């Protein structure tokens, strides 16, 4: 072998005998997984989870101990959702295990669990004393790793080392106990909610199925039509039959006849798979119809002529079964001891499945309970329904062939979709052994390096001899675990392209295209030794290309031909001007690489040499000559700037333009003409079209247009260029211009200037010189440079004396040219300056104010005048006040806003997560008089609301922010310092304090003012003393009527927190203490809370109390009590403080469901629930409505602090009925005493012979709803049939109990009120905090029917979400079958008729007359004897609103037909 480098070559694949049918994944519908949401993608995911199992028992799998069971296929999973796994003997089971319940291994001798891994969510129980069975020589085998969430139990005797020996037998380790968390991610755990899906058969029309009763051998067909005849939305053919039954000891074969190459087929069987256990060699087998076979649409069947001819019909064996058949039922499957059966397909039941000995199965066995009976040594091959398709990638390389080049080349293999289990198959290569193989275009061993290449022979009977290898795909990957290579060799023989085959067999977990499990791919080798080089069609080429051509412009095309038809020549330049020209490798097109061709200045001829190649051999180079052609080129004209004097005469020359033409040597291309095509100002210039001379056409003026811009065109007749010509005028000096000017100046102003300068301009913008040449007043002067007139020194103007002045001014340019003008000066009367410089109100002051806000009506104002400062005190009114101060002509104003309205502040605390409790949650309520807020964390959300009425409009604001409740570090030293201040502080009212003491007044609430001052004790401790007054200054007292003071000391604790320690002391010096005489201190600090966006800060005061020993004050449950305060101050200085009492409780409640117990199995559709919280039995949520199958009973309790805990148990409803019917009394007699007792209190209308009554769950009494007589049925009285005798009746009475639909796990009654939580309705299922919700009104309007909306308008949330109707049809017969009478009712059920458990109680009574006689519907008396009621009762509930897991219009229904025998003894005549 030459070289060892591996390369990947793609190729086109031809699959012999298979074709190119694409496999599409089937839709999960109509299957429905009840334990997950209805979302289509979630349902599909559940289906994919289930399809990875070959053996599945939702609630348990049991392998019996009657002998060995061998199911060694390691590719499919084995699992349970919540049930146990019991291996009762030395069984051999292959594949991964995922178990939701306990695992019991009863006999470890020779037990082999092959393939691994193994994962259980519960415990493993081992037998005792298994030392010999687990010895080194034992064949017991346990492929791991093993992940065990629970315990390993069993052996308890001293010296029994079974557990350790068993662990040692497990490959790849055991993860249990503390090591369970280290369980590898590659070891999956089962989804405990995974189950067998259900199907809604409500509208299904069942076809006649298959029933075999004859003892003779029989063959039956199930015909599967092609897509052209029948399609559905699921990608499958679905067939619904009533039975699949064999009840004879016979040999039967059931063939599922499919189109050529198969079709995904699902067969739903209503009455189950009843296959007689004594049948001989039964078969359920897939057969493919021949290619071109016709399907009879009328008979809905294939033509089976020649069916026994296997050359026409393809009989699918268990080895080649492709996973395209499924059988589904809701009945028990019992295949106990059939003789040598062979079945193909996925067999699924929502009930139990019992499998007997020696079955041959290709497919899956999936059930609620699965029991495999020993001995079982049948051939079991795992084939999932609708498996992935194995294919080869035909797009990796266009040639599609392997090259003879001595290099290893990859065969690209992939799956059509991601597999859920391991996929594997064997393969080998079939090469020719013919002597003339080369002539037959067949590859033989001489064409390969066969080292490591599995070679085989496929015999005429389909068997394989020789070597093979395995290709494996891991679950979750569409690519194999390792690549497959072949190495064709260069053999120096001319053979042409040769073919060989890759044979695929023993397919597991997938299929080939066309739904096959065995087949071959035809591959090709390209011969490297028969090649000849390509040849050009011409011996040389001569091309022409224009000068100035662009890059990629074509010069011509060369062409070569390869005698090998499969070879396509490619071209390249071997020599010559390759830097200028390029050739396209595929087309031979020659193009320009650079824009360098110029006929006038560069070469006019170029030469290149081009070769053609087929990838291996090259042609001789061919000469290509390329000539450059002269073409007309565009002239060029450059931009230029010219000058001319502004006084130039018309006709004077400005300048001459000259264009450049590259074609100057060619007179045909180089004659230039000129013209002006645009100008910034028109008609001032013209150009000679031949010479390009520009001349003046109109008089010029520099001051009007100093610059002119022309666009001039130069053209050779074909091409043209334009240029911009800028003409600049040369300026000639002119005299300046002075204009009459009117200016102003203030009186009483010393040295002031007038309002503006003299108006003058110069055409050339030369600097000007100004001079006053006439001023009769002689008080003005002018700045010679700026032209600004001002007063001479010490001169002052008096408006009252003279208000207008006139002066004459001259203006001169540097050349002495000048102009004169008159300036009029007007004097402005001056107003005296007045300015408010200071204001005071209460404790506030302002400097140079224009607007102030205050809550004190007395305001002191100071202002300045030309004569000095003035002041006064004003008293203002509420709202806006404008105060004006004046001096002579001057004045100033200040706006004073007064408001004494105190803001309203409220504060509350809550948990830092929000949400409404679910329907299974009981929320503890606070006592009505308890002001505290309870939270479950020190991180609490504080909500502050402020109503500010101080402005023109009342402003309301509400904000929430997080506050971390914490304690400060108050040391014994801090407390000691505070204690030492007691009795050492000056406690005085403001009137008694020295004037040197600074006192502050803070309005902190409605009619509440805090008066504070600082004091220093003799020990040098600074404290703050505060007391409180009303708005009139009257002292406020404590609850004992005593005046009091608060003394506060501030310090920094060890954490740097500024802490205030405050005690309360009354006017007599008595300090507030606890019951033990210890001083009570309030410990407070300021917490800076941030708004949610972090941009705003809020100062919150947090405090709690301690005593002088440092003990914190707590409530009766040991929780620390905080006070959180927030103070709001408006712009006027009015303040209000709100305080919330907050108690932090972090202890979770303990919730326990006492009954029912976990995994209880019941048949009643409701159940009583007893549950406790912290040991106290609860009196709410005590009933539960149940659905068929597994039900979760959840009870949750949330305490007033928001701590929430729950408990859950599983209850399984099996064969639950919604309706029960019983006779109230089996014997009806007309005892005179009873007749008198009942008739005396009867409320029925006279003549009533039968009636229907319903128990009102609210009153506990029956209500007669319908009554019948010989004239028919009418509305009942609505009263209790017999006053005081509810539940007791005189005549023949049927007791009918029905179950109303429930909403959730609590068995909640189905009214709107039952799903409303705090005024909202959840639109998502579950009980989480983050469910989507909507208001009740929005829910009713957008999610409910019109009829429900009307009911809601009438009775509000008491409206029922379901409309429930119970229909009764009762026939009365004698025991010998004679018809007596029949009765019909239809009863609408209102919420009043449904009790708290969801039960509805009805009674049908045949009512005796006053003498005790029973009569039929027509009024005829019944005779003494035995009778039979045949009762047909139906309940139908239709959902009126959309629920999270159910759509509006969902219908729940049930019916029951009961025969009730009873006897009647009529009164004596």
From TrEMBL:
Residues 1258-1284 are annotated as: Disordered. This is Cadherin domain-containing protein. GO terms for biological process: cell migration; homophilic cell adhesion via plasma membrane adhesion molecules. Its main location: membrane. SMART domains: CA. Pfam families: Cadherin. Keywords: Calcium, Membrane, Repeat. InterPro entries: Cadherin, Cadherin-like_dom, Cadherin-like_sf, CalX-like_sf. Residues 1268-1280 have a biased composition (Low complexity). Residues 537-637, 636-738, 737-851 form the Cadherin domain. It is found in: Membrane. It comes from Hallerella succinigenes. GO terms for molecular function: beta-catenin binding; cadherin binding; calcium ion binding. Gene3D superfamilies: Cadherins (2.60.40.60).
């Amino acid at each position: 072998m030459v070289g060892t480098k591996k390369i990947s070559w793609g190729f086109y694949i031809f699959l012999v005998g298979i074709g190119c049918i694409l496999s599409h994944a089937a839709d999960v519908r109509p299957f429905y997984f009840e334990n997950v949401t209805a979302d289509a993608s979630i349902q599909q995911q559940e289906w994919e989870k289930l399809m990875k199992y070959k053996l599945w028992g939702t609630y348990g799998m049991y392998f019996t101990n009657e002998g060995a069971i061998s199911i060694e296929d390691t590719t499919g999973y084995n699992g349970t959702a919540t049930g146990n796994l019991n291996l009762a003997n030395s069984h051999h089971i292959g594949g991964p295990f995922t178990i939701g319940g306990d695992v019991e291994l009863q006999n470890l001798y020779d037990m082999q669990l092959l393939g691994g891994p193994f994962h259980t969510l519960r415990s493993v129980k081992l037998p005792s004393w298994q030392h010999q069975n687990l010895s080194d020589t034992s064949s017991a085998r346990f492929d791991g790793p093993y992940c065990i969430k629970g315990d390993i139990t069993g052996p308890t005797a001293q010296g029994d080392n079974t557990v350790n020996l068993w662990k040692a037998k497990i490959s790849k380790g055991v993860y249990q106990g503390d090591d369970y968390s280290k369980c590898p991610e590659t070891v999956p755990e089962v989804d405990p909610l995974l189950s067998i899906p259900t199907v809604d058969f409500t509208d299904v029309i069942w076809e006649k199925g298959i029933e075999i009763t004859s003892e003779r051998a029989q063959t039956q067909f199930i015909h599967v039509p092609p897509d052209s005849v029948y399609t559905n939305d699921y990608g499958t053919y679905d067939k619904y039959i009533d039975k699949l039954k064999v009840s004879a000891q016979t040999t039967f074969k059931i063939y599922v006849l499919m189109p050529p190459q198969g079709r995904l087929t699902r067969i739903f069987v209503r009455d189950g798979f009843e296959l007689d256990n004594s049948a001989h060699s039964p078969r359920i087998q897939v057969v493919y119809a021949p290619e071109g076979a016709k399907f009879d649409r009328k008979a809905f069947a294939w033509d089976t002529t020649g069916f026994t001819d296997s050359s026409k019909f393809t009989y699918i064996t268990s080895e080649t079964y492709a996973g395209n058949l499924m059988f589904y039922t809701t009945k028990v499957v019992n295949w106990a001891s059939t003789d040598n059966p062979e079945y193909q397909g996925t067999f699924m039941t929502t009930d139990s499945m019992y499998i007997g000995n020696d079955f041959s199965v290709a497919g899956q066995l999936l059930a609620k309970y699965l029991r495999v009976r020993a001995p079982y040594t049948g051939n079991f091959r795992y084939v999932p329904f609708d498996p992935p398709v194995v294919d080869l990638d035909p797009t990796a390389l266009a040639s599609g062939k392997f090259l003879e080049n001595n290099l290893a080349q990859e065969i690209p293999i992939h799956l059509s979709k991601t597999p859920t289990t391991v996929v594997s198959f064997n393969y080998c290569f079939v090469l020719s052994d013919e002597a003339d193989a080369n002539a037959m275009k067949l590859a033989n061993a001489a064409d390969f390096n066969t080292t490591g290449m599995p070679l085989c022979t496929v015999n005429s009977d389909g068997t394989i001899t020789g070597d093979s290898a395995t290709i494996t795909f891991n679950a979750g990957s569409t690519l194999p675990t390792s690549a497959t290579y072949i190495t064709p060799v260069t053999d120096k023989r001319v053979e042409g392209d040769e073919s060989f085959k890759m044979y695929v067999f023993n397919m597991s977990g997938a299929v080939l295209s066309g739904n096959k499990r065995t087949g071959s791919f035809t591959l090709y080798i390209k011969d490297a030794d028969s090649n000849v080089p390509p040849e050009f069609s011409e011996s040389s080429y001569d091309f022409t290309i224009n000068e100035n051509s662009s890059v990629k412009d074509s010069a011509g095309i060369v062409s070569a031909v390869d005698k090998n038809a499969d070879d396509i020549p490619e071209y390249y330049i071997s020599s010559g001007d390759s830097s200028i020209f390029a050739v396209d490798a595929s087309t031979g097109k020659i193009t320009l690489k650079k824009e360098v061709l110029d006929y006038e200045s560069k070469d006019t001829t170029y030469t290149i040499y081009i070769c053609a190649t087929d990838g291996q051999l090259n042609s001789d180079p061919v000469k290509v000559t390329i000539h450059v052609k002269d073409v007309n080129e565009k002239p060029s004209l450059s931009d230029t700037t010219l000058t001319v004097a502004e006084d130039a005469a018309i006709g004077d020359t400005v300048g001459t333009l000259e264009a450049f033409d590259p074609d100057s040597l060619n007179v045909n291309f180089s004659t230039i003409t000129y013209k002006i095509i645009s100008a910034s100002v028109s008609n001032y210039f013209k150009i000679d079209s031949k010479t390009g001379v520009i001349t003046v056409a109109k008089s010029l003026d520099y001051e009007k247009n100093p610059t002119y811009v022309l666009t001039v065109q130069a053209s050779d007749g074909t091409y043209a260029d334009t240029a911009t010509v800028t003409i600049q005028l040369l300026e000639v000096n002119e005299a300046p211009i002075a204009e009459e000017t009117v200016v102003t100046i203030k009186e009483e102003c010393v040295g002031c200037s007038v309002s503006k300068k003299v108006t003058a301009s110069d055409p050339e913008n030369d600097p000007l010189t100004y001079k006053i040449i006439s001023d009769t007043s002689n008080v003005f002067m002018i700045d010679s440079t700026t032209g600004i007139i001002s007063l001479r020194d010490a001169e002052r103007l008096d408006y009252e004396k003279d208000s207008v002045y006139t002066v004459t001014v001259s203006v001169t340019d540097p050349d002495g040219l000048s102009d004169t003008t008159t300036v009029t000066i007007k004097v402005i009367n001056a107003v005296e300056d007045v300015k408010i410089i200071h204001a005071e109100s209460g404790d506030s002051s302002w400097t140079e104010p224009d607007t102030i806000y205050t809550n004190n009506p007395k305001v002191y104002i100071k202002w300045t005048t030309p004569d000095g400062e003035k002041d006064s005190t004003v008293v203002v009114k509420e709202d806006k006040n404008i105060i004006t101060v004046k001096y002579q002509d001057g004045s100033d104003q200040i706006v004073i806003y007064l408001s004494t309205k105190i803001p309203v502040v409220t504060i509350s605390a809550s948990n830092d997560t929000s949400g409404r409790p679910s329907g299974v949650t009981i929320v503890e309520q606070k006592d009505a008089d308890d002001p505290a807020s309870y939270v479950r964390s020190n991180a609490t959300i504080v909500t502050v609301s402020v109503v500010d009425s101080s402005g023109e409009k009342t402003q309301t604001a509400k904000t929430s922010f997080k506050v971390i409740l914490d304690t400060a570090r108050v040391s014994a030293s801090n407390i000691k310092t505070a204690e030492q201040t007691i009795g050492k502080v000056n406690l005085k009212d403001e009137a008694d304090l020295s004037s040197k003491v600074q006192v502050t007044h803070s309005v902190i609430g409605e009619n509440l003012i805090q008066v504070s001052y600082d004091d220093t004790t003799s020990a040098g401790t600074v404290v703050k003393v505060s007391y409180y007054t009303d708005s009139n200054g009257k002292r406020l007292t404590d609850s004992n009527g005593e005046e009091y003071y608060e003394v506060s000391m501030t310090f920094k604790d060890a954490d740097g927190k500024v802490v205030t320690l405050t005690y309360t002391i009354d006017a007599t010096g008595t300090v507030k203490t606890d019951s033990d005489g210890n001083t009570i201190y309030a410990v407070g600090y300021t917490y800076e809370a941030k708004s949610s966006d972090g941009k705003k800060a809020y100062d919150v005061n947090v405090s709690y109390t301690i005593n002088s020993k440092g003990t914190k004050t707590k409530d009766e449950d040991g929780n620390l009590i905080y006070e959180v305060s927030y103070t709001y101050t408006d712009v006027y200085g009015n303040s209000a403080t709100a305080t919330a009492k907050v108690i932090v409780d972090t202890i979770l409640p303990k919730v326990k469901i006492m009954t029912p117990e976990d995994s209880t199995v019941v048949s009643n559709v409701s159940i009583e629930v007893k549950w406790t919280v912290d040991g106290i039995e609860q009196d709410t949520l005590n009933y539960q409505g149940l659905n068929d199958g597994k039900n979760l009973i959840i009870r949750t309790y949330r305490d007033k602090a928001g701590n929430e805990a729950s408990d859950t148990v599983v209850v399984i409803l099996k064969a639950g009925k919604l309706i029960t019917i019983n006779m109230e009394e089996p014997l009806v007699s007309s005892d005179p005493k009873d007749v008198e007792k009942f008739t005396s209190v009867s409320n029925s209308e006279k003549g009533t012979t039968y009636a229907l009554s319903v128990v009102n769950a609210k009153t506990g009494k029956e209500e007669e709803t319908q009554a019948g007589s010989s004239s028919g049925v009418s509305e009942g009285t609505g009263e209790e049939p017999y006053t005081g005798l509810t539940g007791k009746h005189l005549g023949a009475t049927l007791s009918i109990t029905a179950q109303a639909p429930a909403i959730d796990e609590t068995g909640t009654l189905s009214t709107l009120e039952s799903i409303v939580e705090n005024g909202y309705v959840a639109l998502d299922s579950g009980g989480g905090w983050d469910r989507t919700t909507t208001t009740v009104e929005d829910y009713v309007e957008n999610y409910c029917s019109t009829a429900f909306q009307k009911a809601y308008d009438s009775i509000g949330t008491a409206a029922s979400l379901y409309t429930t109707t119970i229909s009764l049809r009762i026939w009365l017969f004698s025991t010998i079958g004679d018809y007596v009478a029949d009765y019909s009712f239809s009863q609408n059920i209102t919420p009043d008729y449904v009790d708290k458990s969801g039960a509805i109680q009805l009674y049908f009574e045949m009512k005796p007359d006053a003498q005790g006689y029973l009569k039929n519907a027509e009024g005829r008396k019944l005779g003494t004897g035995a009778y039979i009621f045949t009762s047909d009762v139906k309940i139908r509930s239709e959902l009126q609103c959309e629920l999270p897991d159910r759509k509006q219009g969902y219908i729940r229904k049930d019916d029951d037909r009961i025969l009730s025998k009873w006897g009647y003894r009529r009164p004596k005549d």
